[in-house]
Amino acid sequence: MTATATEAGSTTTPLKGIRRTAARRMVAAWEAPVFHLNVEVDMTRALAVKERQPGATVTDELLKACATALAAHPALNAHYGEESVTTFEQVNLGLAVATDAGLMVPVIHDAGSKDLAELADARRDVTGRAREGKLAMADVTGGTFTVSNLGMMGIDRFDAILNVPQVAILAVGSTRQRQVWNDGDPVWRPVAELTLTCDHRAIDGATGAGFLSSLRTSLEQG
């Protein structure tokens, strides 16, 4: 990317390649009629992921839970286009990654067929190459659902913009200790807020809620 001086005190940097494509898609995403759904999840089990799979992270656990929930709710594993919705049998998970060159969304293809260890390996591979600027176009295309996790950056809750033509995206906030009711015996639990952005042309509220319910169950109970 080449920066050019345009006037005193300012620099203009033209967008190229993947970043230019992403910018165009954001405009299309902003035009989609969306709604948001939010759930709180007890992350006790997810935070213990390294006990089940050394080297795996909470993000890997989230990816695994999303792949499982998408298999049960294929309406969210879909693209919208030309007044039609296309659903996919294969789950290809996009993962938003902050890099020095800006936001990248590499794709873990066929995530639904991978166990936790394989997902962790695939996540390390694509995020590492994203930060090194070594992604190819095949690495950022074909996604059917995207996860954006800003929890490790201290963001409690946020609404993510659709990664069109995908019909849904999950935003993951930070995990905080909160007191929960626990059948009348309040206890402190690590809780995270997950927010689902849905394209209302393809998904209704009940469908989105069903996905989030399955996702929460998978994260809390496995």
TrEMBL record:
Keyword DNA repair: no
EC number: 2.3.1.12
Pfam family, one: 2-oxoacid_dh
GO terms for MF: dihydrolipoyllysine-residue acetyltransferase activity
Matching Gene3D superfamilies: Chloramphenicol acetyltransferase-like domain
Cofactor(s) for this UniProt protein: (R)-lipoate
Keywords, in A-Z order: Acyltransferase, Pyruvate, Transferase
Domain (2-oxoacid dehydrogenase acyltransferase catalytic) ranges: 9-221
Domain of life: Bacteria
The protein's name: Pyruvate dehydrogenase E2 component (Dihydrolipoamide acetyltransferase)
Organism annotation: Nocardioides marmoribigeumensis
